[in-house]
Amino acid sequence: MNALTIKALGFAAILIIATIYVVMSMDIDLTDRVNAITMGGAIAIAVITAGVSVKYINQMKTDTATGDLMDDNWDGIGERTNELPSGWAYTFLAVFFWSMWYGLIGYPVDQYSQIGEYNEEVLEHKATYEKKYENASPEVLTSMGKSLYFVQCAPCHGNTGDGLSGKAQDLTKRMSKAQILDVIKNGSNQLKYPMGMMPPGMASGQDAEDIATYIAGGLKGEAPASYAACTSCHGADSKGNAGMSPDLTGYDNTLVSHTLQNGKKGIIGAMPSFKTMITPIQEKALAAYIQSIAQ
Amino acid sequence: MFFHWLEKNPFYFALMISVVISFAGLLEIVPNFAQAARPLSTEKPKTVLELAGKNLYVKDNCIACHSQMIRPFKSETDRYGKYSLSGEYAYDRPFLWGSKRTGPDLHRVGNYRTTDWHENHMRDPKAMVPGSIMPAYKHMFTNVADIESAYAEAVTVKNAFFTPYGPEFKRTRAAWEAHRPKVIADAKKIADDMKDEDVKKAVANGEVPEIVAMIAYLNSLK
């Protein structure tokens, strides 16, 4: 071992210690595989750099030239006729063939596109997602609905679902008296139920007041006599005749779905349609969550 | 001869290299770019009211916190809707892609927010989103939007870039006076969905408060 090797080892040791010191002082988690590999790489670079330098510096001291000097020279600098080192030559050939393959076949046929990758990602996700949540339990649906709600609905309906003091529908209750009076007076035709539109003026005056109070109060107690005009469409139990018209007692799956598909505009404001943004499973999940906060 | 000369003049040598390389670049980039930068067939230029709103978006520097560019990642398209296409920006001068998302992307905000929501939110973001750090833009409810400049802008881009505004967009005061009622009618549609009485009154008097133009622009982002 000559002095140069010892110096190089010392230098490598300093580099390694410096690397470890920096890694430690940065509080890097070495149980994370990627971090451990990165640090291993840094140490390997230090050792290889020192080792290779020593090898070649030593070689330069002792090596003598072999092979015949070529006749040509450039400003007095000559060249010897040695064979190509075989390792270099084989690597060159391998890279040559690989680049031919990559340029002609590998790349153009299998061309990368960002949109293509996106489409694949979406398809793949859809397939696993649909399967995974096809028969999701109510708890899973509710928690999925909750996270969706906080992204898409909370800015309007509020974190608690209360509608931010009258800025959107209060989802913890069904409709308010004022909203019902408005629908009775003006009718409504935006939710696209099989029954079509709700005609305006189905009741008026005191009858309308009584009906609105009754529905807004949660349909408790004796129904006012005039309410019979409504049950023909909304069902004897006011639950909407199995999806033919809106449920007046709560937010059933059909109502949430029709609202999300078509949006609606009422006296409070406008609710946008989420037709392109929410999948059927997500609709069910949102309905499950809304039903859970209404209780 | 030429090559000997070129090899001895590094500056011209570098120049020739860049010419050669740029030529290849032009062949690859320009045809694709020319196609992708065409407006989508569904794309319409902004109305004068929306343009006035767009100018407010620039003036009040919404771009410092908001981007208008939905990237093709599932996490983004789930939240904002379809990823953006370059043809959608063809009439945007300047386009407002932005590069900072302190707040959410707005490129399709018209799909999932409404006039009444914007009204509440622009007046006091915290009332809608607890803890929001977006500034309140109360001044927009009293300042008057510059719809005349917006009209001039529409006429200019029509003449300079052939943006397809109709034949009624002409460089005369009479043309503007004839178009003005349309702008006010657009503004009235927005104001009808708003709650603020002063704004409604101003629009009824033929004035357009900034907030109306701003909301018209936000609603047009689809």
TrEMBL record, chain A:
Record keywords: Heme, Iron, Membrane, Metal-binding, Oxidoreductase, Transmembrane, Transmembrane helix
EC category = oxidoreductase
- Any GO MF annotation of the entry: oxidoreductase activity
The catalytic activity of this protein is classed by the Enzyme Commission as: 1.9.3.1
Q: Which parts of the sequence belong to the Cytochrome c domain?
A: 140-294
Q: Does the keyword Lipoprotein apply?
A: no
Keyword field contains Cell cycle:
no
Q: Please report the name of this protein according to its UniProt entry.
A: Cytochrome c oxidase subunit CcoP (EC)
| Originating organism | uncultured Sulfurovum sp
UniProtKB/TrEMBL annotation, chain B:
Keywords from the named record: Heme, Iron, Membrane, Metal-binding, Oxidoreductase, Transmembrane, Transmembrane helix
Fetch the InterPro entries from UniProt. Answer: Cyt_c-like_dom, Cyt_c-like_dom_sf, Cyt_c_oxidase_monohaem-su/FixO
Q: Which residues form the Cytochrome c domain?
A: 48-222
Residues passing through the membrane, by range = 12-34
Q: Name one Pfam family in it.
A: FixO
What's its EC?
1.9.3.1
SUPFAM superfamilies attached here?
Answer: Cytochrome c
A GO molecular function annotation here is: metal ion binding
Q: What is this protein called?
A: Cytochrome c oxidase subunit CcoO (EC)
Organism of provenance = uncultured Sulfurovum sp
